[in-house]
Write a structure and sequence with these properties.
By secondary structure, the protein is an alpha/beta fold. Helices cover 41% and strands 15% of the residues. The chain is built from 8 helices and 10 strands. The two termini are 36 Å apart. The relative contact order is 0.11.
């Protein structure tokens, strides 16, 4: 299990009693998985390797070669690979082509949804692409938890998917424009550094202040109304997560307030 990542990817299997081993993603490696470290974690008992591409919270993006390395390791122990691909398509390079895990591995499982890349979280709909035996098991469990989806949600999701190219073009422009603004801001701030995201809508900012990340975020919110996620949520003290896919002027105003806060503490 790569870490940091979306919490439910590791907390849910832990709640079921699974043994979860974490593959740490480090800023000095661009928040990319180390294949040698992954090899040291797997064994003949490994059932599933879980990755998140593009990564939340770092915005790191693995290419085909890196994914192929993971597939090779999984195949060596006959494990499935689950790839959370909810940010798929939101790339800083509009010409980037990154295959889905199901295109690379016969035991690949891809999950996606309307919530992130499509910015339609209110629809509460998603999908799984996987081998047939996995889909059959998922359907059994789904029948116990969800009788049916809302007809209106279904209709809106179908309409969005039929207009996928237009939506992704619009959302891609927003994240590219806003990351440019965030990047310029980071370059100006002496107390802030980061690994520039390649995809997604979030970034991990490292701050140079002797204060825990939760305290930093609470003080920032109380002083300015700006809300960032503490790095402690991802076991990364000294960091905060920022979402930059908001209204551009809101982002500019928020970053200006963060600058004022940093000056008051630095």
């Amino acid at each position: 299990m790569v870490h940091p990542t979306y919490q439910q990817l590791y907390s849910v299997p832990e709640s079921f009693g699974a043994e979860v081993k974490l593959l740490r993603l480090r800023p000095e490696n661009g928040f990319r998985p180390d294949p040698d470290e992954l090899r040291s974690l797997v064994s003949s008992q490994t059932k599933l390797i879980v990755i998140n591409n593009p990564n939340n919270p770092s915005g790191a993006l693995m290419g085909e070669a890196e994914l192929a390395d993971i597939v090779g390791i999984a195949r060596s122990v006959n494990a499935f690979v689950l790839c959370d691909e909810v940010y798929r398509g939101l790339y800083q390079d509009p010409d980037a082509q990154v295959p889905s895990i199901v295109d690379l591995y016969e035991k690949g499982i891809s999950t996606g949804s309307m919530s992130k890349a499509f910015s339609l979280a209110g629809l509460r709909l998603g999908w799984i692409a996987a081998p047939l035996e996995v889909i059959r098991e998922c359907l059994k469990h789904r029948d116990y938890t969800t009788i049916s989806c809302g007809l209106l949600d279904d209709a809106l999701a179908v309409h969005a998917l039929k207009n996928c190219d237009k939506i992704m073009e619009r959302n891609g422009k927003i994240v590219r424009r806003n990351l440019h603004i965030l990047d310029e801001w980071v370059q100006r701030e002496p107390l802030v550094s980061y690994v520039k995201p390649q995809a997604g809508t979030t970034a991990l900012l490292q701050y140079d202040l002797p204060v825990p990340s939760e305290t930093f975020c609470l003080d920032l919110f109380q002083a300015t109304g700006v809300f960032l996620t503490p790095g402690s949520c991802f076991d990364l003290e000294g960091h905060v997560r920022i979402g930059y896919a908001c209204d551009t002027e809101v982002l500019r105003a928020g970053l200006a307030k963060v600058s004022e806060f940093l000056r008051s503490r630095g």
